[in-house]
Amino acid sequence: MDVIIVCHTEPGFVINKRIIFDKKDYKGVKDGVPNLVKLARKYGAKITFTVCPEVVDYFPKDTGQEVGLHIHPGWEEFERIGFKWRVGDMYLKEHCKQSSVSTAMQDHPYSEQFDMIKTGKEYIKSRLGIDPKVFVAGRGSLNDDTIKALVENGLTHDCSAISNKKLPYFDWSRLPRICMPYHPSSKDYQKKGDLPMLIVPASQTIFRRGIAPESIPIYGFSWFKVCFSEYYKQNVPLFHIFTHSPAMTDPYYLSVMETFLLFISKYDNINFKFAGEIKEYPGANFKTKLLPYLFNPNKEIVKKILRKLFNQVK
Ligand SMILES: [Zn+2]
Known about the structure:
Layout: E1 2-9, E2 13-15, E3 18-20, H1 27-30, H2 32-43, E4 47-51, E5 66-71, E6 76-80, E7 83-87, H3 90-95, H4 110-128, E8 134-137, H5 144-152, E9 157-158, E10 166-167, E11 170-171, E12 198-199, H6 216-219, H7 221-233, E13 238-244, H8 251-265, E14 271-272, H9 290-295, H10 299-313
Zinc ion binds at residues 8, 10, 70, 72, 138.
């Protein structure tokens, strides 16, 4: 089984296990990246850092890891647990024409998407000396125009897909939950076609929970183990983990990532790879194995229910 780890590299910090993507704090890049590189080296893992152009100058040189491109278009305010911050790339805001403040790539016309991808890619190349081939769209949002612009700019892998899910700012609803990399069609990015680009969806548990350290407070470590075993036992050829660089500044999330790596490295025939090394696998259909999830109840959810009941009794 191939295992890839894709780290969305952006500003921010963690408070109470929540990431605040605040541009006032670049610790998420300056500290988060070296922390993850150190952990990867310990377990022989490989990391694909998809880097926002606005943080390129904080990205450490010569990490020995893969560098890709991560784009958050637009300029909108977000709020979480009393903190407010802006989503949108400051570098691209200054250097590209954007007719909308929407932070969803799908809301921007082709010419503007093309310009953002080209500008971001060239900036990474000029500052880090690496030509990015892997892309992640901010908020998982893209459309057929994005894929076309990526192909035109020579990017070869997209790691944005959140399979089987649709929200107002993205649509990946037609991909199966366990979805292997595929070449998309130029007319429909959710259909197989012959474009010279591979869409590499993230792995997920049932109920569409992503395999990320940031999801562990929601579904608990037992479901990570169940999900990995579910993939491994039916010879799914790829397991795709993602994270955000600010999470890698937090001792809790670092220990979760270490637990992931320790757990995975005990299995035979594991090949850690960069996302850009992934090729299409021979076709196969994989099934959801529901029972193991149910026999490994999510401790965090059970705790929440008990707490609620307890408060009602009080
Ligand atoms: Zn992001």
